[in-house]
Each structure stands twice: as C-alpha cells, then as structure tokens.
Fold:
Amino acid sequence: MSSNGLNFLDSLTPRIVMFCGKGGVGKTTCASTTALHFTLNGKRTLLISTDPSPSLSDMFETDVMGNIKTVASTRLDAVELDYDKIVDLWKEKFGEEVYDVVSSFLPVEHDIIDYIAGAPGIGDEFALSYIYDLYVSGLYDVIVWDTAPAGGTLSLLKLEDTFFRHLGEAARLYVKVRTALNALTQGKAKDPLKIIGEWQKLAHDILSMVKDDNTMALMVTIPEALSVNQTKRVAEELEKFGINVGGLIINQVLTEEASDSQFNKSRREMQIRHIKELEVAFADRVPQVRLPLQSFEVRGIETLKKMERLLFPH
Structure:
C-alpha cells in the first residue's frame, strides 16, 4: 500500500467524495472507513449510499435505511436511499408542478402524477436531487457517496445529462405550439415555461455539483482481470463526463507474507500482473493505494477503525 494511503484527502478537503467501481470490490468498506476518518478529524460528515442493494446498515450495525441517522458512538451521519420513499418525496416536491405542466397541454386528473411517478428512472433522477439538497444545505463539510455498481452510477449521471438537454428541447417545443394551445384552451392554459426553466436550472446545478473541482471520484478495484478492465473503462467514462478521478484503491491484495501456500502464491503472482497493468493505465494520473487482504470481517465501528488506520496511516 502507498505509505501515505488516502491522507492526501485531508489537504484537498473535497466537498463530495464518490467511491466508484464494480460490485463486490469493497466500495462500501472504503467509503465507510473514509467517512469515519473525516468524522474522527472533526468534519461534519454524511455517508450516503445510492446502491439499490446497500449494506451500510450491516456495516455499522445500525438501521440507516430511508432516514439520516447518527451512527452509535460516533458523530457520523449515514443514510441508505429508500427508492420507494424517494418517489414519495418526488411527488411531494414536484408533483403539483408536473400536473401544472401536463394539464396545460391536456385535460388530465391528478392521477397522472402517480402514473408519471411510476416511470422508470424517476427514483434515480430524484436521488441526485436529494444529494444536491444536502450539498447546498451547509449541514455537512463533506459528503461521502457510496455509489451503485459502476454501470448504475454512469447511467444515473447520463440520465441527468439527458434530462437537462431534453428540458431545453421541451421549452422550445412549447414556445412553438403555445399559440395553438391557447386557442384550444381558450387562453386558460397554464404557462409551463417558468416551471420547465426551474427544472432545467436544477438539472444544471446538479451536473455542476458532480463536475465541480470539489467533487472527487475514487476508484476501488481488486487485482483481477474483470475488475481491472471495468475500472479502466469506468474511469475513462467518468473523466469524459467531466468528473475528477482523484485516486485508485487496489483492495484485497495478498501480501508476500500471506502467500505461503502454492495456492496463495499463484494468486499473488496473478494479482501482481494486474497491479502492474493498473500502474501503467493510471501512471502519473492519480495516487494509488494498495489495501491488503485482511484476516477479519469488516463490520462494526471497531473493525472500521482498524481499516481507518490502514487507509489513513499516521
């Protein structure tokens, strides 16, 4: 492991730290450890998971599903997003505005809100809005974001970008048909341009948040072919999207001392090949941290404190 671990984060003081990577590589462990580190160093920290199958509650042995809670014996706040609850929040925040926009085109009942709320992607769309509200609230110095497995995170970001662009097209379309709509509704149609403009600004602000210099993505991987290949692809996609990839954590590395059997020796030789591949791919781009495979299960505050000493060596 790099002698300085993730200590470079302390001097950079990012506002959002995203942990990205393939499922099962240790993103939640690294995210939880980093969030605990920030808290131990006096930062008001929120740990949030947007993984549809989260494990923060298991990690901290505290139920944090759906509501922000302070983890016992720490000052760390944590939450796993409940996507059913997210949809309800979406209807509460935007439902009436959706009705105003749709009813300006068509004579519809309020039931249309429930129909739209059930559309694919609504929960994902509002998840980013939820993070943005916390980001601008001033309640936290840093938000540690345990993201969904790599493909899901990229889809989430691309969805927001698509939403932003389509809102601009929607406004232009409405301007073209407004005269005809006013004639059909005898001038009683509500003008949705103001609402569409507000939505587009929100989408713009969310995109600005994830692309801001104070937002950093840390890639987490294990030294195996499938994970290494996906890590390189995802890092490239994130950088193309404008997100700062600021570090790489290579997890579950077998040390030389641990490779005393032929089985482990062969696995270590395989890992070394993939580690060299990552070193070439990320050479001079980002700090690289090697996290050894541990003999203990990471669960509960005490084991996370052990991990904190490994990721942030003193």
